[in-house]
Amino acid sequence: MMDNKILNNGNVKIYYTIKRGKKEALVFLHGEAGSLSAWKEILSFFERGDYTLIAVDLRGHGYSGRPESEEEYYFEKHVEDILSILKQEKISEVILVGHCMGGMIGMMFASTYPLIVKKLILINTGSKLPRMVGIFKPILWMIVKLMEGVKFVKGGKRVDYAKYKNSHELSLPRLYDDLIAMGVSSFAKQCLACFRWNGEEYLKDISCPVLVIGATKDILYPPSTTKRMAEVIPRHSIVFIESNHVSIINVPRKIYDTMMEFLQ
């Protein structure tokens, strides 16, 4: 059973769940517009073992607080939140697990705090924005800036992803649920913060063993992009599974089995 916890980091409350075990601590970081509920099935497999498990609602997501300024959504702030959670729980070493944006935050954390991160697992993520986002970035930036002013959809919820199992990465019903759960303004601010991302500078400085999990049908981070990213990481192994970008929802057992092979 996972216990619910709250971290007060300045003026932002960060919600997370934790289950104490005798083995290493695994910290799970979800993608943009998601929440810790995206890990529900994978966590259920891990709960049968003896790892310490922590799953975080990143700031602006799930039940966590919604800061007002765009700067409060920068990846550096997410890194600070994770570090503060570890201090609050008195945990000195972790294995970070990140999906999409959570993987990007994991790269930054592992590069910044190499003595804390013993292993890193990156799932459906990249060192740069997806190519399609990069191409349309100027137009997307204008759209997102307009969305930033939408205050009447405030969010503060978690999506039940069980109903979206086997969904496409661009499933409109799921994306709509994500947007409403996060809140339009918070989503826009996080998008603007993501536009700053360039992880190339962090990859070469990651000293721990890294497992890169890609998906054969991922249209945001296709296998060719995933391979190029992995080649920059000094100590990496790479696995491709039959799925799309939302593999942690669609094929959680495959993700769990792949992770366990790496962890053991």
From TrEMBL:
Transmembrane helix in keyword set: yes
A single GO cellular-component term on record: membrane
What are the protein's UniProt keywords? Hydrolase, Membrane, Transmembrane, Transmembrane helix
Which sequence ranges are marked TM in the entry?
94-117
MF terms per GO, please?
A: hydrolase activity
| Domain AB hydrolase-1: from-to ranges | 25-249
Tell me which domain of life the UniProt entry assigns to the organism this sequence originates from. Answer: Bacteria
One Pfam family of this protein, by short name? Abhydrolase_1
**Protein name, please?**
AB hydrolase-1 domain-containing protein
Natural source organism: Candidatus Gottesmanbacteria bacterium RIFCSPHIGHO2_01_FULL_39_10
